[in-house]
Write a structure and sequence with these properties.
By secondary structure, the chain is mainly α. It contains 16 helices and two strands. Strand 1 and strand 2 form a beta hairpin. It is globular.
Length: 425
């Protein structure tokens, strides 16, 4: 009864009206942003991108129809695993990126009203995700990939607990907890996957549930052992020149340590608060490199694995901006301008999306040949990670600070710009 009432309450005014008035007459998710921000502003542009990514996913999933409407695209080198993992990838990765924005309060502005409806749809989607009677119940038993995307799913709950976790009914909460604990059957390999197991335990710790400290602490120790210097971390025993420090290493390490420090979790012969401060400092240094990668036209090096994750390459910059932890070397107006240029360099190409509004496999546009053996179009929703600054209100200095030229723009215009040196921390 409790769940039925919860769903009825959320459904009121949602299914038929969530998109009304926020998109063009055609109902196309590519229409203008539901923004109170000034037209043409950096924030309005990012809100438009959030809407374009989110509406085709949350709208159907909140009604139990994502599996029906989301046509899968698999990499040409797909390894044959259960394709149902794609739906968990799609929802988990998207919700992690938009959680900070969902956590902002609803208000009377067009953006605020839109956000309130999206909050409701996100909650309904969480209900469907673990309801065995729902067509959109996600895959919780099967290939190891489930562990990966469960971590984005719980990361969203950590980023917006009062919006995405606390309002859920008790049945849904218990189903989610059981699903996450059930993934302990998956042993993560000694690579970035260790952080996915650790993230789930950190989330359990954050809600007062029984957790496994070993799955957190061993991951933290291994990541720190793999630190090679100057802000870079290896992925296991081998160094990869790619963006996995952005996709996984730093964001998850820092947010896991946030929880461990806040709740004073056990960590033998170490202080979580000191490790957390160290991780942030190293992420700041890594982010200085990321900012210098952004060319005068917003382009950046197409390097390494999972290149099709597009602008998720800049998640550390976005995360530091949202956390108000950008280092002095990276002023807010400079970072905002650089990220805006990178977003436009990638997202201007229409074939990033299908005719139905879903992300395609590619870097700039639809380039399926760039897919890795684990890539599907659900995987692409990690690109929402650069939407994190939308968790800052329109009045925040990140949005109001004057735009500044970023490093390459200064350098190639013959302007003064700071030299760059190795750090020892």
């Amino acid at each position: 009864m409790e769940r039925r009432n919860f769903m009825r309450t959320l459904a009121a005014g949602t299914a038929g009206s969530a998109m009304t008035g926020l998109m063009g007459a055609s109902g196309n998710a590519a229409a203008a942003a539901p923004a109170s921000a000034a037209a043409g502003s950096d924030r309005a542009y990012l809100l438009g991108l959030l809407q374009k990514m989110s509406d085709p996913v949350l709208g159907p999933m909140s009604q139990g129809q994502l599996h029906k409407k989301f046509a899968l695209e698999l990499s040409p080198t797909w390894d044959g695993r259960d394709t149902a993992v794609a739906y968990l990838e799609c929802y988990g990765r998207l919700i992690a990126g938009i959680a900070p924005w969902l956590a902002l309060p609803a208000d009377a502005t067009p953006e605020g009203r839109y956000r309130q409806r999206m909050q409701q749809m996100a909650l309904q989607s969480y209900v469907h995700s673990v309801d065995p009677a729902s067509p959109d119940c996600l895959l919780w038993k099967g290939p190891g990939q489930i562990l990966v995307d469960s971590a984005y799913y719980t990361n969203a709950l950590m980023r917006a607990p009062k919006t995405l976790w606390e309002p859920l009914d008790s049945t849904t909460k218990q189903r989610i907890i059981a699903a996450i604990k059930g993934l302990r059957r998956i042993e993560p390999p000694y690579i970035n996957w260790m952080l996915f197991a650790a993230m789930n335990e950190a989330w359990l710790m954050s809600i007062g549930e029984e957790y496994d400290p070993m799955r957190m602490n061993v991951a933290i120790r291994k990541i720190n052992e793999w630190y090679v210097g100057d802000g870079w971390i290896k992925d296991g025993e081998a160094f990869h020149f790619d963006y996995y420090n952005s996709y996984v290493m730093y964001p998850m390490l820092v947010e896991i340590l946030d929880v461990l420090a806040k709740f004073k979790g056990p960590f033998w012969n170490g202080k979580p608060e000191e490790l957390q401060a160290q991780a942030v400092k190293r992420m700041q240094r890594y982010s200085e490199h990321l900012e210098r990668f952004i060319g005068t036209d917003g382009s950046y090096p197409p390097i390494g694995r999972s290149l099709t994750y597009r602008t998720a390459a800049f998640q550390p910059l976005a995360l530091l901006a949202w956390r108000k932890q950008l280092p002095p070397s990276l002023p807010e107006g400079q970072v905002r301008a650089a990220l805006h240029a990178a977003h436009k360099a990638i997202w201007t190409e229409p074939s990033n999306f299908t005719k139905d509004g879903y992300l395609t496999i590619g870097f700039v546009g639809h380039q399926p040949e760039l897919g890795d053996w684990y890539s599907n179009n659900g995987s692409m929703y990690i690109a929402s990670a650069t939407l994190l600054p939308l968790g800052l209100p329109e009045s925040d200095s990140y949005w109001t600070a004057p735009a500044q030229d970023w490093t390459q723009k200064k350098a190639f215009a013959g302007k003064k710009f700071p030299k760059d040196y190795h750090v020892s921390f």
